[in-house]
Amino acid sequence: MKKFLKPLSLILVIVFAGCATIVGDKTHLMPINSTPDSATVLITDEKGVQVFRGQTPTTVTLQKSDGSYWGGKNYTVKISKDGYDAQIITVTSSPNGWYIAGNLVFGGLIGWFIVDPLNGAMYNLSPEQVTASLGEKSAYNNDFSDGAISVVLLENVPQQLRDKMVRIK
Q1: Are strands 27-35 and 58-63 parallel, antiparallel or unpaired?
Q2: Which is the most buried residue in 26, 66, 68, 79, by most CB within 10 A?
């Protein structure tokens, strides 16, 4: 009886589990870095719910599924630091190769239409890591289309713009 137990267990796992569920994870470990370091990271999901707030460098565990049937999770990562232009990176989910091809061989219809879609392991998040290079803010970077006025030190004005400056009394 014992010699049939292991093979029977293996067959049941293959029949009743989706391939992505067997080889995938429900979560993704996302490294987040920036130049310069110590930038603020704010991550919100597709519903606008804040899921993380911290400083770079950091690593965040993100859910791949929103918990609904066929519901991949998407995120917006905003990286900002005083004196630098903020960067916004979109992280999207998509079905992975194990889900698509693996269920043809191992998971069958149960894995393809029931187990993997409910589990969330069928998704990959892209990009797999976030790296941001924040550019310094200056009057030169502002297009002033919003009618704003910037006050900057003379030393922060790019050399090519200094010749165009006019003294106001």
Answers
A1: antiparallel
A2: 79
Report pLDDT for 102: 53
pLDDT over 50 at 12, yes or no? no
What are residue 70's phi and psi, to 5 degrees?
60, 35
**Do β-strands 27-35 and 130-133 pair in parallel, antiparallel, or remain unpaired?**
parallel
Q: How far apart are CA 159 and CA 71, in angstroms?
A: 52
Beta bridge mates, 60 = 30
The torsion defined by the Cα of 133, 134, 136 and 142, in degrees rounded to 10, comes to 120
* pTM of this structure: 0.64
Q: Where are the domains of the chain?
A: 2-134
Please state, in angstroms and as integers, the Cα–Cα distance from residue 26 to each residue in 18, 47, 59, 61, 148, following that order.
13, 19, 16, 10, 46
| Nearest-angstrom CA–CA distance, 87 and 80 | 7
Could you tell me the end-to-end alpha-carbon distance of the chain, in angstroms, rounded to an integer? Answer: 99
